[in-house]
Design brief:
Length: about 110
């Protein structure tokens, strides 16, 4: 009512994500960071196996093995930045995420990249 917006239900309004209701709206930037890390990890994983083929066939054993060996085995014993270097061979590089975003949204919205 403060914004003059009529929302049909809480499910479609502020309660559609638990972080709003708990006052944890500062948590949202971690989603972007996770997506950026994932882009770099995906790029590195593609060097070792055919990720797209595994996804297409629904056989994720190679992906699971790669993630277990390169990332999951460390649990919380290492900092994320160190795990990223171990898994990908380089420090955080935002260009992988930028390339992903440009590729996705250029196609989606018919933009010239």
């Amino acid at each position: 009512e403060y914004l003059g917006i009529d929302v049909p239900s809480d499910k479609e309004g502020c309660l559609q994500d638990v972080h709003w209701a708990c006052g944890d709206f500062g948590y949202f930037p971690t989603y972007a960071l996770g997506s950026a890390y994932a882009s770099q990890i995906y790029h590195a994983m593609q060097k070792d196996l055919d990720v797209d083929a595994e996804i297409r066939t629904g056989s994720f054993s190679g992906i699971e093995k790669w993630l277990a060996e390169k990332i999951h085995r460390f649990g919380a014993s290492k900092d994320p930045k160190d795990i990223l270097v171990y898994a990908t061979g380089e420090e955080f590089n935002p260009n992988y995420y930028i390339d992903y975003l440009v590729g996705k949204y250029s196609k989606l919205y018919g933009l010239d990249a």
